[in-house]
């Protein structure tokens, strides 16, 4: 079973992400900070930036390809500068964006009868990764809560994120994976870091 991070480790993760962004934007340098413990383990991770509670960037690694500290640094810089949906973050925005880090468990393939797939997705607990051919799309657990999706709508939205028809999750040949995410976020820009329990946020 994948070990969860403590709040202290979560705080360290968020501060690492913010520091990586600040140094890169101000000095065009990638920090080489390395930590022991869970940060030396290979983990999937996403870094999300929000401005006035609206999405301002989100990029990460769905699979545990890299050490967690390396993955956080790379994801943070990419979320700030390479998310194709947004212009690169400016140094002036550093004081108005909040940083959120989601640590992922390894994706687990859902292999049940197509009629029971939606029963395997728990809103507030699971994120989704859908693959079909060359297409793939991922939505973090918090997305379903933010938009009040039920499990079927969440599956459909993940299909569309992959550039596929919304009902592709019902088709043979579509691979559906679920994962869990441990979320740590700043309450305000550069401020206190808390762990978010999405299951307690369900409407």
From TrEMBL:
PROSITE patterns: AMMECR1. Residues 8-195 form the AMMECR1 domain. It comes from the Archaea. Signal peptide: none annotated. Pfam families: AMMECR1. PANTHER family: AMME SYNDROME CANDIDATE GENE 1 PROTEIN, AMMECR1 HOMOLOG. This is Protein Asulf_00238. InterPro entries: AMMECR1 (IPR023473), AMMECR1_dom_sf (IPR036071), AMMECR1_domain (IPR002733), AMMECR1_N (IPR027485), AmmeMemoSam_A (IPR027623), Uncharacterised_MJ0810 (IPR023472).
